[in-house]
């Protein structure tokens, strides 16, 4: 029971926070203003602003997350590729930092973090569209196609 609580209320939100922070860091490199990170759904539990980014955590933190911004200007396809790739990139970087601490013979929270971060980073690179939501992979593929067509 404790393992499930740690996974859903600590590991999953942390992996989502790392992923969304990757998008925000890349957006800031392209001077995008008004960045926001939202973790979970339901009523707001906590809200804070750090480095000009508004963070909000909701009561059910394990049901996803997203980042957004106040930018009204259209981003270049190159910027869109890098910003969309930032989330999965940060997931893979966190895996690389964690790798030396993994043990192959016993259950650990490190291993759960490793697997879930690998899952989130990998799945988000797949290009798919579900209703009006587009994956990072979709954004990357669409922007790369635009870049190729304009050359």
TrEMBL record:
Membrane topology: Multi-pass membrane protein
InterPro entries membership: Peptidase_M50
Keyword set includes Transmembrane: yes
Transmembrane annotation, as ranges: 6-30, 81-102, 108-126
Cofactor(s) needed by this chain: Zn(2+)
A UniProt-annotated Pfam family: Peptidase_M50
Cellular location(s): Membrane
Sequence ranges assigned to domain Peptidase M50 in this UniProt record: 8-102
Keywords carried by this UniProt record: Membrane, Transmembrane, Transmembrane helix
Residues in coiled coil: none
Subcellular location, principal: membrane
Similarity field: Belongs to the peptidase M50B family.
This protein's name: Peptidase M50 domain-containing protein
């Amino acid at each position: 029971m404790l393992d499930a609580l740690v996974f859903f209320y600590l590991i999953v939100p942390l992996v989502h926070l790392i992923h969304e922070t990757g998008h925000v860091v890349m957006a800031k490199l392209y001077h995008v203003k008004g960045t926001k990170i939202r973790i979970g759904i339901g009523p707001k539990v906590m809200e804070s602003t750090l480095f000009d980014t508004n963070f909000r955590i909701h009561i059910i933190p394990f049901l996803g997350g997203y980042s957004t911004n106040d930018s009204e200007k259209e981003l270049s396809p190159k910027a869109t590729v890098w910003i969309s790739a930032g989330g999965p990139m940060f997931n893979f970087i966190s895996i690389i930092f964690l790798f030396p601490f993994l043990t192959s013979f016993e259950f650990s929270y490190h291993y759960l973090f490793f697997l879930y971060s690998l899952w989130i980073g990998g799945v988000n690179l797949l290009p798919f569209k579900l209703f009006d939501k587009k994956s990072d992979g979709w954004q990357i593929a669409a922007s790369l196609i635009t870049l190729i067509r304009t050359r």
